[in-house]
Amino acid sequence: MTQPLISLRHLSKFFPVDTDLFGRTTSLLKAVDDLSLDIFPGETFGLVGESGCGKTTVGKMLVNLHAPTAGEIWYGGRDLVKLPGKERRAYCRDIQLIFQDPYSSLDPRMTVGDIIAEPIRVNNLLPRREIDDRVAYLLNCVGLSANFRNRYAHQFSGGQRQRVGIARALAMEPKLIVCDEPVSALDVSIQAQVLNLLSELSDEFGLTYLFIAHGLSVVRHVSDRVGVMYLGRLVEVAPKRELYTNPLHPYTKALLSAIPVTNPRYRKERILLEGDVSSPIDPPPGCRFAGRCYAKSGCLGCACDTRTPELVEVLPRHFVACYLVADERDEARSTGPG
Ligand code: SF4
């Protein structure tokens, strides 16, 4: 069986939001709460959820921009969370980030050649005389002319800037790239080009991606497996085809129903979520989705309001955190075929 490239175990990130007179924390924002996930070599794992669900925080913990509050990140046989700073930084070279906003993620005072060369120089990845050739090679890999190396970021279009950001990530020869909504700031016509480029680079460099997006329509084109997050927790994980054809969690169904269809003869039932989004600050016990769940009343012996549902495998490689789905699976098993 293939070993995961990286494994997240019970990963949590809490941010203090309030303190008492003595400076003690009195309330916490639970951005990521007890998240476990394996990402396998060569796959693209799409992580989806609405704004504020904690998906970007997961990515930032992977690239060491946030220290986890609890949990483990296993990579290369080591728990990165427990490694001392210098060793952790060495491992983190293998995990790079492509930022959401190509406008603000590039230093306007540096040429793109310097931006791409900087991580190579700082980490002594190549002798000085070879760096220029490497920069030219990386620019070509992302579909830009090597002659562009002396230009500044403001001289490029949005799509070209994102290509520079991709070249900068590739400069570190990473194994895993966290793509944090890399196309959401781009025109629709450019989005497809950047997605195709990422796909080609994955084949060429043997890359693994964690692809973060807020809609299921974008990850559909790039992902092998998809995970859906809601308020800091994973609620469904499945291979792409399985998730899009057989969504089981009520929240995933609602997200899928929101994807527009292009065929005017095909009418899709839209699931409109009502109720308030629960606050991630000191969330109450129970399912985080309970306040908006349209399926909750059908829950047998409902524990939705008192216990947090765990992610369980209800079909091969299809994991869901929902009591209703788990009850239906148990009922189907006890009834048996025929
Ligand atoms: Fe809805 Fe209950 Fe399932 Fe949560 S556990 S999604 S509230 S049915």
* Overall strand count: 12
Ligands bound to this protein structure: iron/sulfur cluster
Query: Using only CA atoms, what is the Rg?
Result: 22 Å
Shape type:
globular
The rounded distance between the terminal residues' Cα atoms is 34 Å
Protein described:
- The strands form two sheets. The protein has an eight-stranded mixed β-sheet, sandwiched between helices. It has a four-stranded antiparallel β-sheet with strand order 2-1-4-5.
- By secondary structure, the chain is an alpha/beta fold.
- It is globular and about 70 Å long.
- It has a domain at 6-94 and 174-246: Rossmann fold (3-Layer(aba) Sandwich), CATH 3.40.50.
- The chain has ten helices and twelve strands.
- The model has no long low-confidence stretch (mean pLDDT 90).
- Helices cover 31% and strands 23% of the residues.
- Helix 3 packs across helix 4, helix 4 packs across helix 5 and helix 5 (158-170) runs parallel beside helix 6 (188-205).
- Strand 11 (312-315) and strand 12 (318-320) form a beta hairpin.
- It starts with 5 loop residues before the first strand and ends with a helix.
- The relative contact order is 0.13.
- Bound molecules: iron/sulfur cluster (SF4).
- The site of iron/sulfur cluster has 13 residues, from helix 10.
Name a few traits of the molecule.
single chain, 338 residues, alpha/beta, Rossmann fold, 8-stranded mixed β-sheet, 4-stranded antiparallel β-sheet, 10 helices, 12 strands, 23% strand, binds iron/sulfur cluster
